[in-house]
Write a structure and sequence with these properties.
Number of strands: 0
Radius of gyration: 13 Å
Number of domains: 1
Distance between the termini: 19 Å
Number of helices: 4
C-alpha cells in the first residue's frame, strides 16, 4: 500500500493539492483495533495499511475518501457508525 499511496499522493500534489492537504494523518494501531472490535470484524491488511497512512479526509476539497466510519472517516477516538447519507464511489 505504500507504493499505491505514494502514487496517489504524487498525482494529488500535481493535480489536486487541496485534496492532498485534506488527507488526515494516520490512525494508530490501537484506533484500528478498537474500530475492528466495535464492528466485530478484522480489517484486511491493505485497509489497515491505508488507515495507518491516512485516517480519512476533511472534505474541504474533492472527496477522495468519503466519510463512512466514525467522526468524518476518522477511526481514532470516535464511536463507529455507518451513515446512510454518505455516498461511496
Amino acid at each position: 500500500m505504500e507504493d499505491v499511496w505514494n502514487r496517489i499522493e504524487t498525482w494529488l500534489r500535481a493535480n489536486a493539492p487541496e485534496t492532498l492537504r485534506d488527507l488526515r494523518s494516520g490512525a494508530t494501531r490501537d484506533d484500528i483495533r478498537a474500530a475492528e472490535a466495535a464492528l466485530g470484524v478484522a480489517f484486511p491488511d491493505d485497509m489497515v495499511a491505508s488507515y495507518l497512512r491516512h485516517d480519512g479526509q476533511d472534505h474541504i476539497g474533492y472527496a477522495l475518501m468519503d466519510h463512512w466510519v466514525g467522526r468524518g472517516a476518522r477511526l481514532g477516538g470516535a464511536s463507529l457508525s455507518c451513515s446512510s447519507s454518505s455516498t461511496r464511489s
